[in-house]
Amino acid sequence: xxxxxxxxxxxxxxTPQVYLTNPHxxxxxxxxxxxxxxxxxxxxxxxxxxxxxxxxxxxGKRKYEWKRIYExxxxxxxxxxxxxxxxxxxxxxxxxSIKVGCKAKIEVYKLFGSDVVNIDHYWEHTGHDPSxxxxxxxxxxxxxxxxxxxxxxxxxxxxxxIKAMLRMTSxxxxxxxxxxxxxxxxxxxSAQDIYNTVRRKNVATTYLSDNPVESIRLWITKLTEKGWSxxxxxxxxxxxxxxxxxxxxxxxxxxxxxxYRDTVCLDSTHNTCKGPAREKMFLSTILARxxxxxxxxxxxxxxxxxxxxxxxxxxLLWLSSNCAFHPHTILIDCSGTEALAINLAFPNSAISIxxxxxxLWEAWDANIKSKIVTKKNRCPEDRTExxxxxxxxxxxxxxxxxxxxxxKQWEYIQEEWADQKAWVKYMSKEYIPTKERWCQxxxxxxxxxxxxxxxxxxxxxxxxxxxLCKAEQEAKKHAQxxxxxxxxxxxRVVSDKLVMIDSFTKEEISYEVTLDxxxxxxxxxxxxxxxxxxxxxxxxxxxxxxxxILSEKSIL
Length: 556
Prior knowledge:
Blueprint: E1 11-13, E2 24-28, H1 33-43, E3 47-52, E4 64-72, E5 105-111, E6 117-122, H2 133-138, H3 143-154, H4 159-166, H5 170-174, E7 182-184, H6 191-206, H7 212-225, E8 229-234, E9 244-249, H8 251-260, E10 263-269, E11 282-289, E12 296-304, H9 309-323, E13 329-332, H10 336-345, E14 352-355, H11 357-371, H12 380-398, H13 403-416, H14 421-430, H15 453-460, H16 470-480, H17 484-490, E15 491-495, E16 498-502, E17 510-516, E18 519-523, H18 526-531, H19 536-545, E19 548-549
Parallel strand pairs: 10-13, 13-14, 18-19
Antiparallel strand pairs: 1-7, 2-6, 3-4, 4-5, 5-6, 8-9, 9-12, 10-11, 11-12, 15-16, 16-17, 17-18
Helix pairs in contact: 3-6, 9-10, 12-13, 16-19
């Protein structure tokens, strides 16, 4: 038995439909007229339902048992539905309207006492010709095409698979000439049509109610019944601005919080979507580095309509009471709002707040360019060199490993760049008071990037390898650069709990690599002691002993 074809077989007629009279009258049985109308809409004109005639007022005799009117989708006049309050640059770009005031229509009715359905087909179109390629191009896709796309998306096919179904063979393309009477609708479908279909499906499955607020409440109830920690509450301190907060944490994420809560990242995304009142929405995510995958994993989410510290305080307190969230270290993106929220949510805890180096350098670089002043007679090359010198000196300040080194470098910067008063004042006011959040003398940090449960499971069962950050990749390269003979000569397996490895640079020094449950968990070398990341000795031990590297503590 052959499988049914998934290809789109609908064609658009390119020959004019002309009848002797206008309207052209037809008669159908009750169960036949809808099939005829669907066929007309699929192959020639898109007929849109306009209205059903209302019941007559008073006690007059009714002529119709029921009556429906369908009009051409080119009927009516153009309307601009874009938001007038937005600037032209932010308004949604739309194509020219297809509305040309077409008078073509179809009236379907059933007379009282009749067993048949009558159709008056007003087939003469005005302002456009449905039998032309131009009209086919400008018209909306027929309902049959939309239904076909809906079925393919609901069946789980992605954009690439749907495009493959629409692709025509060279023989089929060769048949398309100026003399053809019908053109396959598949040649008209664009990537935007597929995107719109996917979006329609997402909207239909996402909105549980036409009322956005009610839809959110229904989602909270639905997730709570499935074991989620979920809440939709008014934001304390923001009542006058109608502030609200949505907080979410899945059962799987609660388990990870118990394991990774000591060292996390708080990441904020602005203007994520529109709220119930079409306001901007802000997403905050608690992330940690998964010890199984080596990548970032989201632990909880917060969505709010206000950019202030109040929703964050509410979110952190909710996590603390509902998900046993008690962090020791939190990485943020140089935001004073986030730092304030953390301090207010955990007033009795000595939480270490760290700055993300990427955001830190973004802020520093922007202010170096704007605040460093050079003489007008200096050439561009001189200014570029000065900016590079400033960046180099700030980099040394960032990488200071002890307090004395930091103070010495900051004193040098104040003397060397004393003529750059605006920039020195900026650093003194904004970053020197918070040096514990970014200087390496007080903190150690690596990258964070989001990932999901599937990677955690796949890597946990051995289908994928653990993700390595840049420092770990370099350490692995050093270990793999040794010859097999040199590598084996440096490694001595003392017991099932200990491996001794000779130093790569100092022959008289050896480092202890600790094993537990068949995994490599620690090393006594300075690199691992400082960062907690996999070092070259751990990777060398992995190559020789075939044990896997396991992370014993949370690392950003």
